[in-house]
Amino acid sequence: QVQLVESGGGLVQAGGSLRLSCEASGNLESIDAMAWFRQTPGQQRERVARITRGGSIVYLDSVKGRFTISSANAMDTVSLQMNSLKPEDTAVYYCHVDIRGWGPDIGYWGRGTQVTVSS
Prior knowledge:
Blueprint: E1 2-7, E2 10-13, E3 18-26, E4 31-39, E5 46-52, E6 57-59, E7 67-71, E8 77-82, E9 91-99, E10 108-109, E11 113-118
Parallel strand pairs: 2-11
Antiparallel strand pairs: 1-3, 3-8, 4-5, 4-9, 5-6, 7-8, 9-10, 9-11
């Protein structure tokens, strides 16, 4: 099992920045990739950014050039630096890990942290 704890959400004005962090504990050796998702009421959860143990990174098109995901090699932490925030970035952000052999986007989830961007 893997436990995830997010921190760093909050309220920020449009154009501002926030940094989200997620600490993982438990069976870290089983983690293949770490990611951030977000969800707004009535909408499906969408993947914002993902980083694999090998360092491959993928971003949601709408956040490219504004958000940066990073993770320690041990996959015990993952961060999301969010710059030039827009009101449409407002959502609950969830940390997620892919577990080796389970398939993508199944793994474990954090409880989420609220990000609110005011216009």
